């Protein structure tokens, strides 16, 4: 059973091999016992490694060990193709039945020795023999990322948080891809403290691990407490050697949630919607300009949310049959929770109090609205041209506007949907030249069908109006029939509406 990784085994061999060679019999026995217990190697294999003997190369060709000849391999390819290219584990139990059925219908031309060797192949050998064939036929398989890092990171569920000190955060990425997730687009790194709900956000130009580490280093400077724990999902942008080594170097406890269990990260998932999506919205943001505007937005948003936005925190939860009863603490801001926590140092409390006295919530809200307007302008530019830098309203005007802002409905620019473009006719009207003539025919014989009127046009103008125009004629006659019905009920008062409808159809 493997107890340590292969890399660690190699490091152990390099570290103690010299001492093993120079040691006495008793010391060698003691070192060998410890090495075998730690690595799980066979004792003889461990002795050879520590003596410095060359370890046999892994992989590659094995000369002299080839058992199956070219005729067996060729027969295997035929059988594999006849099975519709299934894998070796599924093909192995099928071989006797498939070979017998092929020979019964005259499709097999292999001799008895080839058949015997083919039936004795193991599933692993079948896959190994077909490896190059599969690669040339269907292309090389996509290699999955290494799971060694993921296996080495412990799992932490929602119930495992037991009143941690400020500094243990959950992290997640929020994508700003808009309606389609192709190409490069901005991402937002969100950190949420478990104890206080303190939330920090930073935009990422691209989804890449070194960019994420840089953003994380900048966010650590803004946090009012040291970063003690970093809990993430199983995304490869978190589960990699760069992030793992960064956390080890700075003594940060790295944990992860269970795959496909978003409730394990309930704290940060709630902030993804309540903060990022509520303030930034769902538009697509890409490029340097949009990322810079996101950074400006987050610089004001972090102060407004952490100092002036109370939130609930679950106190207890119990189940009574099918009913779940939850009780919450009194709503408080992350700033208030941090001051009330006895584990917060005194100098941190003094620094936060001094910062709080300098903050103006109205000014922060005005700056947030201005940044939102710039982001919307950048995202909604149809030609990709740079947005113009808007000027902030004077604080007095913005404050007076808050009194009547409710009359305009939604005030967050990023929450308003993009205005739909007016749909216009995309090609010229094919019946423009004969519309009046068609209408005369309809008024003279209103019982005629659209197909009859189109056939009459085709007779009068051969080769000009194809059968594909039947839907256009039907839509035109639908308006005329509606107008005729209105005229029968309302008389001449429907003439104006009739003329308006015809103009809209022609346009």
UniProtKB/TrEMBL annotation:
<dbReference type="GO" id="GO:0003676">
    <property type="term" value="F:nucleic acid binding"/>
</dbReference>
<feature type="domain" description="Integrase catalytic">
    <location>
        <begin position="162"/>
        <end position="342"/>
    </location>
</feature>
<dbReference type="GO" id="GO:0015074">
    <property type="term" value="P:DNA integration"/>
</dbReference>
<protein>
    <submittedName>
        <fullName>ISNCY family transposase</fullName>
    </submittedName>
</protein>
<dbReference type="InterPro" id="IPR012337">
    <property type="entry name" value="RNaseH-like_sf"/>
</dbReference>
<keyword id="KW-0614">Plasmid</keyword>
<dbReference type="InterPro" id="IPR001584">
    <property type="entry name" value="Integrase_cat-core"/>
</dbReference>
<dbReference type="InterPro" id="IPR036397">
    <property type="entry name" value="RNaseH_sf"/>
</dbReference>
């Amino acid at each position: 059973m493997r107890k340590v990784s292969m890399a660690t085994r190699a490091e152990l061999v390099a570290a103690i091999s010299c001492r093993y060679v120079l040691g006495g019999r008793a010391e060698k026995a003691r070192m060998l016992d410890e090495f075998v217990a730690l690595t799980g190697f066979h004792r003889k294999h461990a002795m050879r490694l520590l003596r410095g003997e060359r370890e046999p190369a892994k992989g590659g060709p094995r000369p002299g060990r080839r058992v199956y000849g070219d005729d067996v391999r060729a027969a295997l390819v035929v059988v594999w193709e006849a099975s519709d290219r299934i894998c070796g584990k599924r093909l192995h139990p099928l071989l006797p039945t498939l070979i017998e059925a092929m020979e019964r219908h005259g499709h097999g031309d292999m001799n008895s020795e080839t058949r015997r060797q083919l039936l004795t192949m193991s599933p692993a050998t079948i896959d190994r023999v077909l490896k190059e064939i599969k690669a040339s036929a269907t292309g090389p398989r996509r290699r999955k990322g290494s799971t060694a890092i993921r296996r080495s990171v412990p799992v932490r569920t929602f119930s495992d948080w037991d009143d941690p000190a400020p500094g243990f955060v959950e992290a997640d990425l929020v994508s700003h891809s808009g309606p389609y997730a192709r190409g490069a687009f901005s991402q937002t790194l969100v950190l949420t403290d478990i104890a206080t709900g303190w939330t920090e956000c930073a935009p990422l130009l691209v989804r890449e691990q070194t960019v994420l580490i840089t953003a994380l280093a900048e966010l650590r400077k803004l946090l009012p407490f040291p970063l003690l724990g970093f809990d993430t999902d199983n995304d490869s942008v978190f589960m990699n050697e760069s992030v793992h080594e960064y956390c080890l170097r700075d003594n940060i406890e790295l944990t992860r949630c269970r795959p496909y269990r978003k409730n394990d990260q309930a704290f940060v998932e709630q902030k993804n919607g309540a903060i990022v999506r509520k303030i930034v919205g769902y538009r697509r943001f890409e490029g340097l300009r949009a990322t810079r505007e996101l950074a400006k937005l987050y610089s004001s948003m972090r102060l407004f949310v952490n100092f002036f936005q109370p939130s609930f925190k679950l106190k207890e939860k119990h189940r009574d049959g099918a009913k779940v009863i939850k009780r919450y603490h009194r709503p408080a801001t992350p700033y208030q929770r941090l001051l009330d926590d006895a584990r917060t140092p005194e100098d941190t409390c003094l620094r936060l109090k001094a910062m709080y006295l300098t903050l103006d919530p109205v000014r922060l809200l005005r700056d947030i609205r201005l940044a939102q307007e710039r982001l919307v302008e950048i995202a909604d530019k149809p030609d990709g041209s740079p947005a113009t830098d808007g000027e902030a309203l004077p604080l007095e005007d913005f404050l007076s506007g808050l009194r009547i802002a409710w009359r305009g409905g939604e005030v967050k620019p990023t929450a308003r949907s993009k205005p739909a473009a007016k749909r216009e006719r995309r090609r010229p009207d094919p019946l423009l030249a004969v519309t009046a003539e068609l209408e005369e025919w309809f008024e003279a014989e209103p019982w005629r069908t659209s197909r009859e009127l189109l056939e009459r046009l085709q007779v009068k103008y051969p080769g000009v109006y194809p059968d594909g125009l039947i839907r256009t004629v039907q839509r035109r006659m639908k308006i005329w029939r509606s107008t005729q019905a209105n005229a029968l009920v309302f008389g001449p008062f429907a003439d104006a509406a009739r003329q308006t409808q015809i103009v809209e159809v022609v346009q």
